[in-house]
Amino acid sequence: MKRLVFLVEGDTEVILVNNHIIPFLYGLGFKNQMNVQTIISNRKLHSKGGNINYSYLKNDVKRIFAQGNVIITTFLDFFRLPNDFPGYTEEASKIGQIENAVKDDLQKYGLSIYPYIQKHELEALMFSSMDGFELVVEDINALANLRELVELNSPEDINGGRDTAPSKRLMSLFPYEKTIDGELILEMVGLDQMKSQCPRFNNWLTKLIRILEQDNE
Asked: What is the DSSP string of 87-126?
């Protein structure tokens, strides 16, 4: 069986994959080795995180693919995605265009990958319910504003503008700390709720399940 590798941008994505997605897939009975890796953004310093351009992603895909017997997927935020990505567009409704272009471009080098780009960013998943916010937010007015967002919007449709992206909304309402608060919120929301409220995210997981089923035949 092939190893499944998730290439992600930062620590909160690592938490999501390690604490929720990988256990979910193992719970379905898959025996593949699975791990998550943060994209290397400065190869000289071997540092990770920060701004991820397409060349960084391509370098890591080449490195991992060279190890052999591997399935590679990504979890990248559409918000502030660099414009050097193949098929780049600023229209959130056309994220699939970028994913397909990335897949096609890497195939030119004999690399196989199943790209996923989150609409608009990881924090969108946190708006799948109020459970996490009620744990970390004490201000009543902030909670009321968050409840309005949760009840009136599909999480994946929350605006991804410079000041209205999901993470920016959180920062404007309480002192949001991405890794610490993110881990607590995601734990309280739970993967089932994220899947039920975020169709695009759920479709990606469904695709991964099909890929693993084929590999386990």
From this structure: T--S-GGGHHHHHHHHHHHHHTTT---B--EESS-GGGGG
DSSP SS3 for 24: helix
Q: Quote the CA–CA distance of 166 and 168 in Å, as a whole number.
A: 5
Q: What's the CA gap between 65 and 20, in Å, rounded?
A: 24
150-190 pLDDT tens trace = 998 899 999 878 888 999 999 999 999 999 999 999 999 99
Question: How many Å apart are CA 128 and CA 195, to the nearest integer?
Answer: 9
Q: What angle do CA 35, 37, 34 make, to 5 degrees?
A: 10
Helix 166-173 × helix 140-152 angle, to 10°: 160
Closest CA to 164 of 116, 123, 118, 117: 123
- What pLDDT is stored for residue 172 in this prediction? 94
pLDDT at position 48: 47
Burial letters 169-207, b for 16+ CB under 10 A, else e: bbeebbebebeebbbbbbebbebebbbebbebbeebbee
What does pTM read for this prediction? 0.93
